[in-house]
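Suppose you are handed only these lines of text.
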Amino acid sequence: MAKNATKQTKKLAILTSGGDSSGMNACIRTAVRYALNKGYEVYGVRHGYVGLIEDDIIEMPYGSVSNCVHTGGTILRTGRTDEFRKPEVVQAAAQNLLKRGINNLIVIGGDGSFHGVSDLHQLTDINVIGIPGTIDNDMGYTDYTIGFDTACNTVLDAMLKLRDTITSHDRIMILEVMGRHCGDIALKTALAGGAEYVILPEAPTDVDAIAASVKKGFDKGKTSTIIVLAEGRNDLKDELREKVKASTGRTVNHVALSYIQRGGTPSMFDRVLASRLAARAVELIECGQSGRVVGVKGSDIIDVNVIEALKAKKNFDDNLFALATTISK
Ligand code: F6P
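From them, the structure of the protein bound to 6-O-phosphono-beta-D-fructofuranose can be written out as follows.
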């Protein structure tokens, strides 16, 4: 809702917060240039909320976002801090914008960053809009977050390479992928990459049954197997490795792709999504809106109240999981 539309000064700041994700720069670029076109002076807060607290704020003219649409990471840098959970810190940090006459802020980040959006909206005079940027795709109100598609493509590329070596050695590979508590990267890449098994936080796992099934596969003539393991179930890694090794008598390797999934040039999907989300965020700022976050449902760009967005439960796609497990063995 509009808070301070009468005081609007046509100044806007942008920050990226939490884990970086590919496409954040495409998002920053569109936000900066679209806002400049609408007559705003645009600023960047470096290192996320840390920079807001520490007054690390720079001006962002047109050329500041040249040559970054294709790059991973975030040109604004990012940060994580628990300090921003304290109301008095949020209020003091907001003064670093307000003292420059900046009363609009766009925050690009995941759910932790959206708590900051909510607090800034409720506790300060800043109009703040959130854009979902995280590889995890763990936010229930939006179909996609910026960086998820690129991270999945990175996993698929790795899977292709791992297949070459496990096929040559007749081995089994446990490929661990990121996603924190969400198994979306694991599920989509297992299906798209033709992995034989996928283990996710959202579905129960029977390690003994998997070990027996891998053996059955080899008995039927399979010569290699990939098991995608979501970060949210990496507590099963050792047990899985031992039991599959015991049942098959073969070498079982484990690779965690880890931070490699966060970097690299963003996919076309992420660049287009990032640009569309950024444009909607600037339009909301232009209308004096605050406390809202943008997202995508189907092919539509949407915006919702940040508190509703934070409450929205991520739906687990049982059908896709069933499909991935049915066709893979
Ligand atoms: O949220 C993105 C993410 O990469 C998760 O997949 C992972 O669990 C986490 O961040 C790692 O965080 P950090 O960069 O603090 O190690």
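What can we learn from it? The radius of gyration is 22 Å. The pocket of 6-O-phosphono-beta-D-fructofuranose is lined by residues 19, 80, 110, 134-136, 178-180, 231, 262 (CB under 6 Å).
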